[in-house]
């Protein structure tokens, strides 16, 4: 068996192990170790490379970005900033067509700018937005689907953990990835808004339980407006955090790691000022930060070891040659790669897909002249769609489990997210065809 064929076998074994339930880090370590051992017929080399990777894999100041942004997101989540953001968006947008749906998207967009984790957004807005939407006559399944669909914005709008992980795996600037995610993220949010309005006009019964009753309620209900002072007070903390973190980062005043530290400190001040952080909650936040951060950093060490095995096998260069010889141009490769990511998204979680595919695909894309920032946004967009597609659909299951309503099935939430998937596919195609959408601010 040739080294190239053996490399493909190892990738197949890796995917198989993950599908059978093995933890992705253990699978990456195991496949990489066995691969280096068998390719070079030297178990001592495999042990030496494992030792070297364990130290050098995360021995960089840049990796402190991960726990700092995780800590910021968790502190923001416990301080009820998400609830306040939704309430203000609801006040400003409730008279629009599908106003509460649009308010959910708007609140998720703002919330994503300080959390970076879609699951956090899904959990927060399930508790806040779904009961409010249902109370105003929206179908419970549609309300849950709107939260699940708009929660994916947290993975694209900076700061995003997926963008950080991609930047580390592809060895590109994390600050640059944050800049590249701005316009596609806003395009996605705008597409969701247009889709919700159009869907309500064209298929009102898909959105509303009883459209006629909702119209009558809007005419008859005397709504007490929220005072402007209260709206400003509710929005001030999250706006200041966004300006502090992203403003400092984009002006070059902070490095990504410093921005994470400043953001975490700002989020701590917000949580303390709102008296939403006692000693028990602080311990839970710190413990969750440690668990999430260590899990991600362990995965990155494993991915680095896996990348070295691929390099020893000569897999990236060999695949580049095969792709070039097959007549695939850069655009053809980009769409072929996106289709693979979409298929993998049905059976694997987002981080696993990045860890398996980026070490293989990024060198190929670079060899074909594709900008790695642009390639990263296409990758994250395609991976995001997997958050909503069955059978895995982690955002849908998060909403379903948080909602805990026996009348709202997982299947009905999946059906309600289909329009969001359609918008995401459209944005994915536009970004793939027009690289400027990702490189405009670079």
TrEMBL record:
In terms of InterPro entries, this protein maps to: DctM, TRAP_DctM
Which Pfam families does the UniProt entry name for this protein?
A: DctM
Q: Which domain of life is it from?
A: Bacteria
Question: Can you say where in the cell this protein is located?
Answer: Cell inner membrane
Which GO MF terms does the UniProt record name? transmembrane transporter activity
Signal sequence residues: none
Coiled coil (residue ranges): none
Tell me the ranges covered by the TRAP C4-dicarboxylate transport system permease DctM subunit domain, including all copies.
12-436
Record keywords: Cell inner membrane, Cell membrane, Membrane, Plasmid, Transmembrane, Transmembrane helix, Transport
**Transmembrane regions:** 6-39, 60-82, 102-130, 142-169, 181-208, 235-253, 259-277, 289-314, 334-360, 372-393, 413-434
GO CC annotations on file: plasma membrane
Q: How does it sit in the membrane?
A: Multi-pass membrane protein
Which family would the database say this protein is a member of?
Belongs to the TRAP transporter large permease family.
Tell me, how does this one assemble? Answer: The complex comprises the extracytoplasmic solute receptor protein and the two transmembrane proteins.
Q: Which NCBIfam families match?
A: dctM (TIGR00786)
Q: What does this protein do?
A: Part of the tripartite ATP-independent periplasmic (TRAP) transport system.
What's the name of the protein?
TRAP transporter large permease protein
Q: Give the originating organism.
A: Dinoroseobacter shibae (strain DSM 16493 / NCIMB 14021 / DFL 12)
